[in-house]
């Protein structure tokens, strides 16, 4: 298998779902040379929901709900309808999940990589969206969660793919990127009272074959979640 997990620090109730989602990505890549995590938010949410079912839980995507409630606000409706990205039931607990998806360019020369603040910004944005739905969720005894699915690739023009580059150069660069990502997520988790969790999987075969020349090369993928308990 070309991709293997580097970390999955999710709580036990969620860990199996996250692990299965990662396995689905790796299996699909091995069979089709393509990575589901590259695709849009809806595709990732659907695959995550499928992983939940396989692990013995229940999940639906794009669920119609009253997303926000405005009690006592003059001139505003009491609530407005919308769609929740995922409704997840784990151990008889209902979670409404707001999801986002981001892609990053990994290279020592990149300005948009794991080591920068863009993932943290996306996590905060998803968490803010989830908080707006908290009052509506409480009406059905649901908890809120937010997920950011992400992937990291190496551009054809990256220094790590130049003619004299080596698999070792790529392996070391990606390992450093993941290390810095984890450091950033641990800092965020402290700020959020330990409610932030992350999982990352990365390549184990850093050779780039001829059929990948001129294409983005998949290096890593994962997800970050903030879970209300």
DSSP summary, beta strand count: 7
**What oligomeric state do the depicted chains represent?**
single chain
Low-confidence stretches: none
Structural class: alpha+beta
Supply the number of helical segments: 5
Rg, Å, rounded: 19 Å
Chain-averaged pLDDT: 92
Major sheet summary line: 7 strands, mixed
Q: Kindly estimate the percentage of residues that lie in beta strands according to DSSP.
A: 25-35%
Give the distance, in angstroms, between the N- and C-terminal Cα atoms: 35 Å
Structure description:
This protein has 229 residues and is of the alpha+beta class. The protein has one domain. It has 5 helices and 7 strands; from the N terminus they run E-H-H-E-E-E-H-H-E-H-E-E. The chain has helices at residues 12-32, 41-54, 118-131, 134-138, 167-191, and strands at 3-8, 58-69, 79-90, 93-105, 142-154, 196-203, 217-227. Strands 1-6-7-5-4-3-2 form a 7-stranded mixed β-sheet, sandwiched between helices. Helix 1 (12-32) crosses helix 2 (41-54). The longest helix has 25 residues, at 167-191. 39% of the residues are buried. The model has no long low-confidence stretch (mean pLDDT 92).
């Amino acid at each position: 298998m070309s991709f293997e997990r580097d970390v999955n620090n999710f709580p036990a109730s969620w860990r199996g779902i996250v692990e299965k989602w990662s396995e689905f990505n790796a299996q699909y890549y091995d069979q089709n040379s393509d990575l589901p995590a590259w695709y849009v938010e809806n595709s990732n949410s659907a695959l995550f929901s499928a992983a939940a079912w396989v692990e013995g839980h229940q999940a639906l995507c794009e669920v119609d709900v009253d997303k926000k409630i405005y009690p006592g606000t003059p001139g505003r409706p009491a609530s407005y309808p919308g769609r929740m990205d995922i409704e997840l039931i784990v151990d008889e607990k209902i979670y409404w999940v707001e999801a986002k998806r981001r892609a990053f360019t990994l290279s020592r020369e990149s300005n948009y990589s794991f080591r920068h603040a863009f993932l943290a910004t996306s996590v905060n944005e998803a968490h803010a969206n989830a908080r707006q739905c908290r009052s509506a969720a409480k009406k059905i005894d649901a908890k809120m969660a937010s997920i950011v699915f992400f992937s990291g690739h190496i551009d054809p023009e990256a220094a790590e793919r130049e003619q004299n580059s080596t698999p070792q150069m790529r392996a070391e660069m990606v390992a450093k990127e993941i290390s810095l990502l984890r450091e950033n997520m641990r800092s965020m988790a402290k700020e959020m009272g330990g409610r932030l969790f992350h999982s990352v999987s990365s390549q184990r075969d850093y050779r780039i074959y001829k059929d990948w020349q001129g294409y983005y090369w998949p290096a890593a993928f994962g997800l970050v979640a903030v879970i209300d308990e």
